[in-house]
């Protein structure tokens, strides 16, 4: 402990990380630098400055990372059509490598000896933060208070504050949600309370970003999304930055009941956990990106991408964004996206994202070949006979040797 003179803490301004500030000061006798990231969580981050100052912090970093988050992390992930275990759009997972990157940058700027975070010892975030930190600065020391202290509940944290006169208004006069929530521009997550029983349906008033599909408008909403190199660069003819694209899709999608998910997932640390997620913009992006790829990507390139995707998604979920294998996969994925240009028209209706049209100058769709009408000789149907017989050759040989596929059924 005596080797640690300065620590950079990922600081939200809430109860846990405010306790961590004083705990680090008390137990390590070190100077604490706080870092608060604005990644679109929908709450004011500036009050964290006043809270940090009240705790005696001299070096306070509050950074607006919204554009970098979407441009350099969310968009590359959606080029891969990444989805974990068939349902989770990785909203929390993809934010952690950016926070780890900035923690290390600040540690270098301030000559800090260590970084610290408020992730618990049961979750994935501790893994994500620390794998990212070690990848970017292998000699950095990491302090994870939840793995060291004996404060195991909100009540014990509050008692710690009272004993040490920590001057923080944790609730801001508001009724505290019973759920553990994490939000950024891509999603908001909910865990805990009744959600710990997988049989319990979430309460309607839990959801923050979306109306229920039943309460969504009776008329559909149409959007035209313009793609360039696999990324959305405009909506309905208006050019937009990456963060503005996602903000817009969240607003319109949420208003139409899009993006709710209730999942039991397999955490990297070994347990199953139930969480609920709202990802309206991401849900639209995934559906639309697959639509524009459907007309612009070669068949085998598209199929290979689909085979790689689960591996890519697991790497992000498990915290390996900065690994060589993720970067290798990203290079392969990005190489396919130069032709992923055009426009996708989507219809949003009562929780559904329906593709209503797609077009591209790079389209491989050839109507003269695909038509059910007279194709004027563009496709010779007689060619199919030889194609089928060649592909059936191994099956016919096996059957002729008595290897009947019905045997044993």
From TrEMBL:
Pathway: Amino-acid biosynthesis; L-arginine biosynthesis; L-arginine from L-ornithine and carbamoyl phosphate: step 2/3
Protein name: Argininosuccinate synthase
Taxonomy of the source species: Bacteria, Pseudomonadati, Pseudomonadota, Gammaproteobacteria, Cellvibrionales
Gene3D superfamilies, A to Z: Argininosuccinate synthetase, chain A, domain 2, HUPs, Single helix bin
Family, per entry: Belongs to the argininosuccinate synthase family. Type 1 subfamily.
EC number(s) per entry: 6.3.4.5
Residues where L-aspartate binds: 120, 124-125
Domain named Arginosuccinate synthase-like N-terminal: residues: 6-167
Residues given in the record as ATP binding sites: 10-18, 37, 118
HAMAP family, alphabetized: Arg_succ_synth_type1
Limits of the Arginosuccinate synthase C-terminal domain: 179-397
Positions annotated to bind L-citrulline: 88, 93, 124, 128, 180, 189, 265, 277
């Amino acid at each position: 402990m005596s080797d640690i003179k300065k620590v950079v803490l990922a600081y939200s301004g809430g109860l846990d990380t405010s306790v961590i500030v004083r705990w680090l000061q008390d137990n390590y006798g070190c100077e604490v630098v706080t870092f608060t990231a604005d990644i679109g969580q929908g709450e004011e981050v500036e009050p964290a400055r006043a809270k940090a100052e009240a705790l005696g912090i001299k070096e306070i970093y509050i950074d607006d990372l919204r554009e970098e988050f979407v441009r350099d992390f969310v968009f590359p992930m959606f080029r891969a059509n990444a989805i974990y275990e068939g349902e989770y759009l990785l909203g929390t997972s993809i934010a952690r490598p950016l926070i780890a990157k900035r923690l290390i940058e600040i540690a270098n700027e301030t000559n800090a000896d260590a970084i610290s975070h408020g992730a618990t010892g049961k979750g994935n975030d501790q893994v994500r933060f620390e794998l990212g930190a070690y990848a970017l600065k292998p000699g950095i020391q990491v302090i994870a208070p939840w793995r060291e202290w004996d404060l195991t509940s909100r009540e014990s944290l509050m008692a710690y504050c009272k004993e040490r006169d920590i001057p923080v208004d944790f609730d801001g006069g508001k009724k505290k949600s019973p759920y553990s929530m994490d939000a950024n521009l891509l999603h908001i997550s909910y865990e805990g309370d009744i959600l710990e029983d997988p049989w319990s349906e979430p309460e309607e008033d839990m959801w923050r970003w979306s109306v229920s599909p039943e309460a969504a408008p009776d008329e559909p909403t149409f959007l035209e999304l313009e793609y360039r190199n696999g990324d959305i660069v405009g909506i309905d003819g208006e050019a937009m930055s990456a963060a503005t694209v996602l903000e817009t899709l969240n607003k319109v999608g949420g208003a139409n009941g899009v993006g709710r998910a209730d999942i039991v997932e397999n955490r990297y640390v070994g347990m199953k956990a139930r969480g609920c997620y709202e990802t309206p913009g991401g849900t639209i992006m995934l559906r639309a990106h697959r639509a524009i790829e459907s007309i612009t990507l070669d068949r085998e390139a598209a199929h290979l991408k689909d085979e790689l995707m689960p591996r890519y998604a697991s790497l992000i979920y498990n915290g390996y964004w900065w690994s060589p294998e993720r970067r290798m996969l990203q290079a392969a994925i990005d190489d396919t996206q130069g032709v992923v240009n055009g426009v996708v028209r989507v219809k949003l209706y009562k929780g559904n994202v329906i593709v209503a049209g797609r077009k591209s100058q790079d389209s491989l769709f050839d109507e003269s070949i695909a038509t059910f009408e007279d194709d004027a000789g563009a496709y010779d149907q007689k060619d199919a006979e030889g194609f089928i017989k060649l592909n059936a050759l191994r099956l016919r040989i096996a059957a002729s040797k008595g290897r009947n596929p019905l045997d044993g059924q």
